[in-house]
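User: Can you predict the 3D structure for this chain?
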Amino acid sequence: MNLGDLTITFQAEVLPEHIDNNGHMNVSWYSTMFGAGTMNAFSEVGLVFVLDDDHPEKRGVFALEQHLRYLSEVMLGEHVTVYTRYLARSEKRIHLLHFLRIPGRTNWRPQERS
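Assistant: Here is the predicted structure, written as structure tokens:
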């Protein structure tokens, strides 16, 4: 699969507050970045979630199941890009596959979340 063919749903620089005691990006930030990618992917296809209790179209979303694969370390100052692939959908579910990649890095396997 060529990641360049997929939609970019999130980009960020790894900041000092993202780093753990081992000098790598803390695992919690992978979920945060993939979560931002999910919300941007939803917005891109017209799914908007309203959290106002008084709004007539109040909607929400939650992750029913997640699988993360950490295949390489992400370091301070690196720029990361989340690519998203839509795998399947039903009336109430959407199945996405995200890849977190550092553009320009060679011989590196992207992180994945589905």
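The chain has a mean pLDDT of 82. Helices lie at 27-44.
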